[in-house]
Design a protein that fits this description.
The complex is a heterodimer of chains A (417) and B (139).
Chain A lengths: L13 E3 L6 H12 L5 E5 L8 E7 L2 E7 L5 E5 L14 E3 L3 E2 L6 E2 L5 E3 L25 E7 L2 E5 L7 H16 L4 E11 L3 H7 L3 H7 L1 H5 L9 E5 L6 E6 L5 H7 L28 E8 L3 E6 L2 E9 L5 E10 L4 H10 L12 H13 L6 E3 L18 H14 L9
Antiparallel strand pairs in A: 1-19, 2-11, 3-4, 3-6, 4-5, 5-10, 7-8, 8-9, 10-11, 12-18, 13-14, 14-15, 15-16, 16-17, 17-18
Chain B lengths: L7 H5 L2 E11 H5 L7 E3 L2 H13 L6 E7 L3 E6 L2 E14 L4 E16 L2 E11 L3 E3 L7
Parallel strand pairs in B: 1-7
Antiparallel strand pairs in B: 1-2, 3-5, 4-5, 5-6, 6-7
Classes of the chains: A alpha+beta (417), B alpha+beta (139).
Chain lengths: 417, 139
């Protein structure tokens, strides 16, 4: 059933708040987006390097196993036993020749096929499964898996376009920038934000908030709207990237621009500057790059801290942000240490990122009681959605909603795309 | 106590200049992964973080309450005492709603000279890897 959404405008410059609070919308998102023709980020190939390796992940709120078979091929399938629905694998990761459900010991191969079940033929001629029970047909639902430079994506839909086309030149190019060399996983962090998952998706497409909400950015000069940078999107405007180039503004530019805000550009100095040290390791000179892929993925570089983030919706009013922090396999001990010190900036305790959770929860709390209210999304202009070579914009949020509405089947008449 | 009373500056003064304070999660430790949620490898980094909290960062207004279990001494190297203790940290909103924010253990090295003890190293190993909302004030 398709819900009736009264979009006030066809360019998504007004978005009704109730879309963050409606259980029916949430269920439809799980069906039409996360189990629909979108490609969701699963994990990194580097997390399952060897035959038999597996790890568990989530696509929307569906539990998924990603595993590597004995020939090295990667598979993904629903982590739910075909028998009575128990989670097959409860560990976060591991290595196994076969995966066995704890409840009645039904066995699955690394490629997600049901291969055996106890007492299938009964005991002494009694009991057992019917002779015509079809093991193949009873295997868990599989996802199609594709890798872009070691970043693994999956889709449940056979209507999805090829991953490369889905990401576009924009996406494949920027993923290659991050993953051009073999990586080393440094670890994980998790954060539960008590807000609808789309509020986080919006946050990642809003370059406008970065230098205002995250005062640390501005005060200590990590990222300011006066730096050269902007937003780039794919052709369909479903993915985007905020970015900034290091050292492309002056203290004077910044002081003038932030004169009317609370930012303290003069007074604050770090005692230990190594926190903000940036060793330029990319030929493009960007010190901040945050490409976002619809619906659930982010790659993020702030100085020398590198990570992926996966949005895991957990009901209409909460989501987990699962972050995988990495460096490169050829990093020496000093570089790994530097990346970990830089990691103080990002994640749930990040000096520049901690405010996002608070802002999202503040929106979720305050919008629950308004059925008619709408977000105003006009910074950077109305109408057509396009790339901008400046940073005072939230236009990619409108791009997000346009693709969301297309997949949900709820576009307004004359909708922009 | 200092943290529960929002005396962050006093808390910093418990540390030696050459100190190490970090918050890691059990999930990473058990996989042998070095990722940190927070890492200050000297007292100036602690001072910077506290100054940033006071003047720059915006986070959820709340009260902290640490409940710390018995200390278990694990080693003594000259004047350095090593000990561990479990903790629970509850957070309470300004409207009075409390929640369990984090549970885990401390691994501490403290130097004792005369009557003066200074923290050399505090590693917080949080069982609570799924941080509720955000982690601002230290554990």
């Amino acid at each position: 059933m398709t819900p009736d959404i009264a979009w006030p405008r066809n360019d998504y410059s007004r978005v009704p708040f109730w879309l963050h609070h409606d259980a029916a919308i949430y269920e439809l998102e799980m069906e039409r987006i996360f189990r629909g023709p979108a490609w969701s980020y699963l994990c990194l190939e580097a997390e399952i390097p060897d035959a038999g390796d597996f790890r568990t992940t989530w696509v929307g709120d569906t539990p998924v196993i990603v595993s590597r078979d004995k020939d090295g091929a990667i598979h993904a399938f629903v982590n739910r036993c075909s028998h009575r629905g128990a989670m097959i694998v409860r560990a976060l990761r591991g290595n196994a020749e076969r995966l066995v459900c704890l409840y009645h010991r039904w066995c699955y191969s690394n490629s997600g096929e049901l291969t055996g079940l106890p007492f299938r033929k009964g005991l002494k001629g009694e009991g057992g499964m019917p002779q015509d029970f079809d093991m193949q047909a009873a295997s868990p639902r599989k996802l199609e898996v594709a890798s872009c430079h070691g970043m693994l994506f999956g889709t449940f839909s056979d209507r999805a376009e090829p991953l490369e086309a889905y990401l576009g030149e924009f996406g494949t190019g920027i993923i290659k920038r991050f993953l051009s060399r073999p990586i080393r996983i440094l670890g994980y962090s998790r954060q539960r934000i008590h807000g609808n998952w789309k509020l986080y998706a919006e946050n990642l497409r809003d370059t406008y908030h970065a230098s205002l909400l995250h005062e640390f950015f501005v005060t200590y000069g990590v990222d300011r709207a006066t730096q050269r940078g902007g937003v780039k999107m794919d052709g369909r405007h479903r993915h985007n990237m905020n970015h900034a180039y290091a050292a492309t503004d002056t203290q004077e530019d910044a002081k003038a621009a932030y004169a009317g805000t609370a930012a303290r550009l003069d007074r604050m100095q770090l005692r230990d500057r190594k926190l903000l040290e940036f060793k330029n390791e990319f030929s493009d000179g960007m010190n901040l790059a945050a490409p976002v892929f619809f619906p659930n993925a982010l790659l993020i570089q702030i100085n020398n801290s590198l990570a992926t983030r996966q949005i895991r919706p957990q009901g209409v009013s909460a989501h987990e942000v699962f972050q995988t922090v990495f460096g490169y396999a050829d990093d020496d001990a000093a570089m790994t240490r530097h990346r970990l010190i830089s990691a103080n900036l990002v994640g749930p305790a990040g000096l520049v990122s901690m405010e996002d959770g608070e802002a999202i929860e503040a929106v979720q709390k305050a919008t629950r009681s308004t059925r008619d209210g709408c977000a105003v999304i006009e910074m950077g202009g109305r109408g057509e959605v396009r790339d901008l070579a400046h940073r005072v914009t939230e236009t990619p949020i409108r791009g997000f909603w346009s693709y969301w509405a297309e997949l949900m089947g709820v576009e307004p008449a004359g909708a922009i795309r | 106590m200092a943290l529960d009373e929002d005396r962050l500056e006093d808390w910093v003064e418990l540390f030696d200049e050459d100190c190490d304070y970090r918050i890691v999660t059990r999930e990473n430790v058990e996989q042998g992964l070095p990722n940190v949620l927070m890492w200050c490898d000297n007292k100036n980094m602690l001072r910077d973080r506290v100054e940033s909290y006071r003047n720059v960062n915006l986070y959820n207004p709340h009260y902290d309450r640490h409940v710390i279990g018995p200390l278990r001494f694990t080693d003594k190297k000259d004047s350095i005492f090593c000990f561990e203790a479990g903790y629970s940290l509850f957070q309470t909103s300004l409207e009075g709603e409390s929640r369990l924010f984090s549970v885990g253990r401390y691994r501490v090295e403290a130097s004792v000279e005369g009557n003066l003890a200074k923290l050399k190293s505090v590693t917080v190993i949080a069982d609570t890897g799924l941080v509720p909302s955000l982690l601002a004030t230290p554990i």
